[in-house]
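Q: What structure does this chain adopt?
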Amino acid sequence: MNKDMLRMKPKVTGMSSPAKGGGNSEAGGWEVRPGGMLVQKRNIDSNQNFNVVPMIKVRVKYGSSYHEVNISSQASFGELKKMLAAPTGLHPQDQKLLYKDKERDSKLFLDIAGVKGGSKLVLIEDELSRERRCLESRKNAKMEKAAKEISTIRVEVDKLAKQVGATELEISAGKKVTESVLLNLIELLMTQLIKLDGITADGDVKLQRRMQVKRVQKYIETLDMLKMRNSTLGNNSSPRVSFQEDHRMFTGQMQVPIHNHYEQKRQTNFVQRSPGPVVVTTKWETF
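A:
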């Protein structure tokens, strides 16, 4: 009987029991959780301000002016530069902040550098950075302008491409078209080619320009071939033709010559083989 009682006796754990007296389980810094577990009592009051970051006031000298700034003690110098942009009129990238006669990196934190409330800093303008930023801004503006110009040219080329396609269908069906229609399309395409040649671009914009140049050249070559095919419609013989002339643009009844300073020179050779189709070879040269 004594042995059975010994087996049923609960084991003693290593956890100390709560302080005796009054039957209060929360005495002595202990509390009972809802699940019945006895844990050490938490002191909420001692931790409620644990994560609060103090604010500090610093004085920044810029030229002959002083600016007082309230900022977190754990903020970076880059954040301080952003706060100084409005009162000083300097872009954050054009600022240099000196603390204890030493320039501080924008990624460095104030408290790590030893900045405290009442600390004095000096702000000076970074002229090299301002010049680089201005050059970059001008470059970006130039690329945006070039992209818009290429986009406008692409719209015009799309319209002309539809006219080239319609003309090709008519000639392929055996219908002879007025030669001025073909010359007009060629001239309009060459005008777009001149505009593309005058655009200076880099990167993706340069690739877009190159794509449009190839498109225009392809349509001009197609029109050269159509012009030869159109000239043979209704004729019994097709003599050998050498085509090398200045294209002119027709606007209604008015004839407008193309610019003489056009930098894209086309050399087109037409070879008529008998029997067989007309072969057109076009070489593009850039001066």
